[in-house]
Amino acid sequence: MFKQLDSAASTGEVTIWLEGHSHRVPNTFSVAAALLWLEGAAGYRRHVDGSNRAPLCMMGVCHECLITVDGEPNRQGCLVPVAEGMRIERQWRAL
Amino acid sequence: MSETRMRHAEVAIIGAGPAGMAAASRLAEAGERPVVFDLAQSPGGQIYRQLAAPQVGEAVMGADYLRGQALLTRFAHSRIDYRPGSRVWWAQREGQGTTLGVLASGKGELWQVRQLVVAGGAMERGWPFPGWQLPGVMQAGAGQILLKQGALVPEAPPVLVGTGPLLYLLAWQYLRAGCPPRLVLDAAPRSRYSALLRQPLGTWHARHYLLKGLRMLVALRRAGVTVKQGFDALEAEGEGHLEAVSYRLAGRWQRVETPLLLTHFGVVPEPQLGRGLGLGFAWHAGQQAFVPERDVDSLAAGPGLWLAGDGAGIGGAINAEREGHLAGLSILEAQGERVGEERASLRCARARDLDARKLLDALFRVPEGWLAAQPEKTLVCRCESVSLGEINAAMGQGAAGPGQLKAFTRCGMGPCQGRLCGESVSRLLASHQGASMNTVGYYRVRPPLHSITLGELAASPAPPSS
Amino acid sequence: MPQDFLIIGGGVVGMAAAYGLARRGRRVTVLDGHDGSLRASRGNAGLVWVQGKGSGMPRYAELSLHSSETWPEFAEELTARTGIDLEYERRGGVDLCFDAEQAEALQAEYRALYASMPTLGAVRWSYLDREALLEHLPGLGERVHGGTWSPHDGHCNPLSLLRALYAACQALGVDYRPATPASEIEATGAGFTVRTPGGTFTSERLILAAGLGGRQLAPALGLSGRVRPVRGQVLVTERLPQGGRLPSPQIRQTASGGYLIGDVLEEVGDDTGVTLETIHQLGERAVQIYPDLARARLVRTWGALRVMTPDGNPVYEASRRFPGAYNLSCHSGITLAAFHAEELAAAIDNDRLETAYGDFSGARFDVQATG
Predict the structure, then answer these.
(1) Which of A69, B59, C17, C323 is most open to solvent, judged by the fewest CB atoms within 10 Å of its CB?
(2) What is the pLDDT of residues C178-200, one digit of tens each?
(3) Which residues of B touch A28 (CB under 8 A)?
């Protein structure tokens, strides 16, 4: 869904674990941005009503980017910068 | 075990966008050491996001983005207690100052602040249409954030829809990045531009903005990007994610397949902090938004409380910087400094800029009757999945205000606590009752202004017993 | 033709009375305050509760028991009429104690209360220690001493209840007027005239169900205006998977999944704000009760004012000076909703309020009140 421009500034990378698979991502990315880059919007999250949802605003307002980071559920992925060794799990269970 | 440990700050600022940075820098220059609480991990707010280590250059972004570097540099080199990753979840006026509950890196802090500058900024309007909750529908600001944060652009040519300068800016930036949009749909009809002729003074003041916009439009047209104006209905379609967008133009429905739709229906002040502090808000007909009440000259919203930037009314980045500067001067004046001359020139420039804004507001008005005309299946509250039909039913059953509507339908009770649905709900009530937005009012905003866990709350310092 | 009844107040008490009277074929108009008024109906925990009610007034304990027995039928009928689910459950409830002293005091109170009247012998309850409570409250923290369990207790969604009452009243032809507060009430010979910013309304009889608004309106009608605000503060969490725990006054999980944490009593006048001190304490207590909630996100707090009569027990009274004027005040409008919609409405309709419920008149507070 999203790709990086060739002209992107070079920046460091970190290894994150998404659903048990490791990925190298630029260290300027938020968790939500990393997910959109790696896997697109479809399948980001399952909402309490059972519908599929994905980030809308990327700035902490919409709360659609909720995701489990290092075991902590319902973190706003757009406000959490990726970090080395971070473990990310989607929230795929409706209530 | 929690201990009582109240931290004190003579001056604190919430927000590190242009307003927050300007206020902090000016105060630091005068010898203060302001504390700056920033929700983000690095300064810049939204407009200057990632600017300390930009991922994309002027060739894509244009000059305005890079222009913020001077402010960022000044901020970085000033004696400021900058606190990134800070969630200000509690803010309460106490006598002469404000008590703040702040969560940073999972640890709670309690702050007593004498002078507080609130510079929390703006957000994009939540603007419901059928299917807006589908993955693949994002706001234009989100597209810009991805661009700034990681030089991320859509893989396939996207569809951009809405109205407002950001719509064209993003389209132009994508074009310069080599991924021109597939289609740009502007809700503003062509006749809107006759507003230009009716406000010659505003046009003159806004000439820089207008010329910039014109250049962007010309570039898009030259590159063959399809720009259509005057759509009046929109629907996002797909099973589980966006597959196509339908829109109505001149009475005819058309459809375009796309995995990504970027929408923009204007920006409004982000309300939680101001409303949480108990500030009065009034409906600004020109901006079509609730705006907090403050003194027009001093920017004071109460003793020891100052509002600066887009969070207090949409004025753009340059205006926000000026207001931050002005708020800083007001604080210095309250401490006995003489600021008259410095303030006078700022005020002059600000007045001209705000005149220009009025024209932009008129050019990019969002269609007032939009929401009430949507299909009943349209979600108004995304968090609690409350449709327009349910809200209409509840209003029909006697829910006559935002609080009662919330009680009847759960709209506004979800994680975003009304940020995306609040204005919509007020609009629906106003339309239903034939009342003004000021009469209808808005949800009551309560703490926490950002969610915190019960564990974090329990582990926070206990406030001193009164 | 004037209405049979004007009801001042569109909260859960006023609307239950309106519903009850409309079901009996009466023509009813409800005059309600503003969206931003003190609205106790939007600020309660949703308990449909029996245990512990009526210390010092056994008649009230009896009333609570009776209302709880008729609640299932009341809920069913409301849902049948409106399609609105009240999320009502009656699987029992537990009032929690945190130390032995508190446990002893509570048990002593209950023993005395339930021995005070023969009919109250029907109230089943027992004190369970922490181990025994685990069956009802899985994941109960180690710092809880125990609690009084009773099978009569239950809970509902008080907002759904309110909405269902609105919908049912509308379907029954009740004339509901929002943002139409009473500025002046006059007893004419033939009935009552109420002046409001939205016009003048007349009726044969009048019911005050205005919560804290009764303070201003009641005295002029020869009715007791002696209610005072008692604030409660509540924490609300994000929606979480159902934990299968019985409700408590201290904490309960709603059908949609959020936990409500509260049970605070503060005398602060008309202040519906929240305080950092109290919400901090509530956070600490929540985590003590269910340690797994340490990870739960707090999304909202609120403060609300209970309508508290001098002894905490309901006031149901008929004016002697102005026959046809009635006053209803209580803080358990949810539990008593079934009673309000049925027996109380009938008693008012037949003008038998004093005969049937004389114990509840406000005269019990004012030595001077004669009529």
Answers:
(1) B59
(2) 999 999 999 998 899 999 999 99
(3) 50, 53, 55, 149-150
Written as one string, the DSSP assignment of C226-244 is --EEEEEEEEEEPP-----
How many angstroms separate the CA atoms of C44 and C55, rounded? 21
The β-bridge partners of B400 are none
Contacts of B383 in chain A (CB under 8 A): 63
Please report residues of A whose CB lies closer than 8 A to that of C254: none
Calpha distance C23→C2 (Å, rounded): 18
Can you give the pLDDT at residue C264?
Answer: 93
What is the distance between the alpha carbons of residues B322 and C121, in angstroms, rounded to a whole number? 74
Indicate the residue of A3, A30, A63 with minimum beta-carbon distance to B383. Answer: A63
Tens-digit pLDDT profile for residues B117-174 = 999 999 999 999 999 999 999 999 999 999 999 999 999 999 999 999 999 999 999 9
Count CB atoms within 10 A of the CB of residue A39. Answer: 15
Distance from CA of B463 to the nearest CA of C (A): 6
pLDDT in tens, B409-459: 999 999 999 999 999 999 999 999 999 999 999 999 999 999 999 999 999
Where do the H-state alpha helices sit in C42-148? Answer: 58-82, 100-115, 130-133
Distance from the B161 Cα atom to the nearest Cα atom in chain C, whole angstroms: 32
Angle at which helix B388-396 crosses helix B402-409, to 10 degrees, equals 110
ipTM, 2 dp: 0.98
Q: Which of B15, B11, B82, B12 lies closest to B311, judged by CA?
A: B15
**Closest Cβ opposite residue C257 in set A73, A74, A95:** A95
What are the domain boundaries of chain B? 6-123+268-335, 128-265, 371-435
Mind listing the pLDDT tens digit for each residue in B449-463? 999 999 999 999 988
Residue B294 φ/ψ, nearest 5 degrees: -155, 160
The pairing of beta strand C192-196 with beta strand C184-187: antiparallel
Picking from A54, A63, A79, the nearest residue to B136 by CB comes out as A54
To the nearest whole Å, the CA of C3 is away from the closest chain B CA by: 19
Token match 């005057």: residue? B230
pLDDT tens profile C190-226: 899 999 999 999 999 999 999 999 999 999 999 998 9
Task: Identify the helix (H) or strand (E) that includes residue B322.
Answer: helix B316-334
d(CA C287, CA C296): 10
Q: Which residues of chain B have pLDDT under 50?
A: 1-2
User: What does pTM read for this prediction?
Assistant: 0.96
Answer whether C125's CB lies under 8 Å from C64's CB.
no
B276 contacts in chain C (CB < 8 Å):
none
The domains located in chain C, with CATH, are: 3-47+159-227+311-363 (3.50.50.60), 93-151 (no CATH), 228-308 (3.30.9.10)
> How many residues would you count in chain A?
95
Report the run of H or E that residue B318 belongs to, with start and end: helix B316-334
Looking at chain B from residue 388 to 447, which residues have their Cβ under 8 Å from any Cβ of chain C?
Answer: 394, 396-404, 407-408, 410, 413-415, 417, 441, 444, 446-447
**Looking at B266-385, which runs of residues are DSSP E strands?**
267-269, 281-284, 289-292, 300-302, 305-307, 379-381
Distance CA(B312)–CA(B319), nearest Å, equals 11
Query: C170, B407: Cβ pair inside 8 Å?
Result: no
Instruction: Give CA B258 to chain center in angstroms.
Output: 27
Of B396, B407, B417, the CB nearest to C300: B417
Domains of chain A: 14-89 (3.10.20.30)
Phi/psi at C19 (5° precision) = -60, -50
CA separation for the pair C77, C97 (Å, rounded): 36
Residue C369, pLDDT score: 45
Neighbours, chain C (3 or more CB pairs < 8 A): A, B
